[in-house]
Amino acid sequence: MTAKSVLLGPILRWACFTACMMAYAQPPTPAIPPTQGLGFPIVGVAPGQSVRINALNQTPSPALQGQAGCRISLQFFDTDEQLLTEYVVPVLAVGKSAALDLNRDDLPGGGRLSLRAVLAFGYSGGANPPPQLLQQTATCNIVPSLEIYDNDTQKTNILVTDARPLPGPPIPIP
């Protein structure tokens, strides 16, 4: 047995193991699937910039929403629909806001990055929920905004408020 064949065996085993593990690797799954909520148009973020998604729960009365508030997920996706980052707020109380920042410089690559921001909230299907949950979902009044700002000066360059409702889950045709 030569020294070359002794080294080649472990290297091949390591390469096969690594290839198998990479094949089974999955991108992160959003905590709340982006099937209900609000979505922004695709925006471009350049090196030296960050993007922030904001959500304000502006329900007119806490009595309409109850003590639970709204469960909401702030999400950023790339153009291949891969989740880049997510922040889940279990209870966004009336009059409170939440935000999620994504710094372009923290992501791989050096050029401009196109991405989209999503606010997922509400009931996303499954078993019939209790009436209290449906009432709570129906009374969440989320006011969204998206801003792109300069990392050095912290000045906002772009502010987008034109979020669109996401399509609901598909309904089977009888």
Brief write-up:
The chain has 3 helices and 10 strands, in the order H-E-E-E-H-E-E-E-E-H-E-E-E.
Structure description:
This protein is an alpha+beta fold. 20% of the residues lie in helices and 38% in strands. Strands 1, 2, 4, 5, 7 and 10 form a six-stranded antiparallel beta sheet that branches. It has one domain (28-163): Hypothetical Protein Tm1070, Chain: A (Sandwich), CATH 2.60.290. The longest helix is centred in the first third of the chain and has 22 residues, at 3-24. A hairpin with a 5-residue loop joins β8 and β9 (156-160). It has helices at 3-24, 62-65, 131-138, and strands spanning 37-39, 43-45, 49-57, 70-78, 83-92, 97-103, 113-121, 142-150, 156-160, 164-165. It contains three helices and ten strands, in the order αβββαββββαβββ.
Question: What attributes characterize this protein structure?
Answer:
single chain, 174 residues, alpha+beta, Hypothetical Protein Tm1070, Chain: A, four-stranded antiparallel beta sheet, 38% strand, globular
Q: Care to count the β-strands?
A: 10
Helix content bin:
10-25%
Q: What is the CATH topology?
A: Hypothetical Protein Tm1070, Chain: A
Which second-level CATH architecture applies?
A: Sandwich
Order of helices and strands: HEEEHEEEEHEEE
Q: Strand-residue fraction?
A: 35-45%
Biggest β-sheet strands, sense, barrel: 6 strands, antiparallel
CATH class: Mainly Beta
> What is the typical, i.e. mean, pLDDT?
75
The shape, in one word, is globular
